[in-house]
Amino acid sequence: MRIAIAEDSTLLREGIAQLLTAEGHMITDSVGTAVELLRAVAVDPPDLVIIDVRMPPDFVDEGIHAALRIRREWPDVAVIVLSQYVERRHTSDLLDGRGGVGYLLKDRVSDIAGFLDAIERVRDGGTAFDPEVIRQLIATRPDPDTRLAGLTDRERAVLELIAQGHSNASIAGRLFISQSGIEKHINMIFGKLGIPPGSTYNRRVLAVLAYLDHEPTRQ
């Protein structure tokens, strides 16, 4: 996979680059500002970009704005936003109904297997939103989602693992069910939550939002 990295911390940027290179990926650009990343993408679009939220010159939300611009102007480029905190003001705009996008807290990088899995899922058109990110995005919703009452215990278990960021294969291994069985459960979940094929929003993300909206906030 061809990957561009934008992170103002040289130590973290080089660490991610070395990790990905060791896994067989090609780092097309490794830069310290969002402006440099946008220039690099314009010249030679990679398969995926990894970008920090706070970057020079103002260290506010330059990364989010760059990610949204890449989503608009280079829709074939997958995007992972990496941050120490959740930027609420624009993050919800990333949930635009298309896959190929992720928002991970930097603590996730220490889970190397999980981080690498997230990169693969996003590159393949999936999503990788840290559960804490989605939880904070919906924290101000006044009305909980009651549609989950119709789910079976098994379907609820599957949905909980989806919300934690597990892939279908990972869920199958944890619940000792075949992947085809997991796919059937997920389709049942979509049906019961009223998320039809061709929904404007990403079905998996909407299911996670429903789950996190229903569950008590974790401390």
Task: Give a short summary of the structure.
With 219 residues, this protein is of the alpha/beta class. It has helices spanning 10-22, 34-43, 62-73, 88-91, 112-123, 131-137, 153-163, 168-175, 179-192, 203-214, and strands at residues 2-6, 26-31, 48-52, 78-83, 101-105, 127-129. It has 2 domains: 2-137, Response regulator (Rossmann fold); 147-214, Orthogonal Bundle (Arc Repressor Mutant, subunit A).
Describe the structure.
This protein is of the alpha/beta class and about 220 residues long. The protein has 2 domains: about 1-135, Response regulator (Rossmann fold); about 145-215, Arc Repressor Mutant, subunit A, CATH 1.10.10. Helices cover about 45% and strands about 15% of the residues. The chain is built from 10 helices and 6 strands. It has helices at about 10-20, 35-45, 60-75, 90, 110-125, 130-135, 155-165, 170-175, 180-190, 205-215; strands at about 1-5, 25-30, 50, 80-85, 100-105, 125-130. It has a 6-stranded parallel β-sheet with strand order 2-1-3-4-5-6, sandwiched between helices. Helix 7 packs across helix 9 (about 180-190). The radius of gyration is 18 Å and the shape is globular. The model has no long low-confidence stretch (mean pLDDT about 85).
Global structural class:
alpha/beta
Shape assignment? globular
Q: What is the CATH homologous superfamily assignment of the largest domain? A: Response regulator
Strand content: 5-15%
Helix content: 40-55%
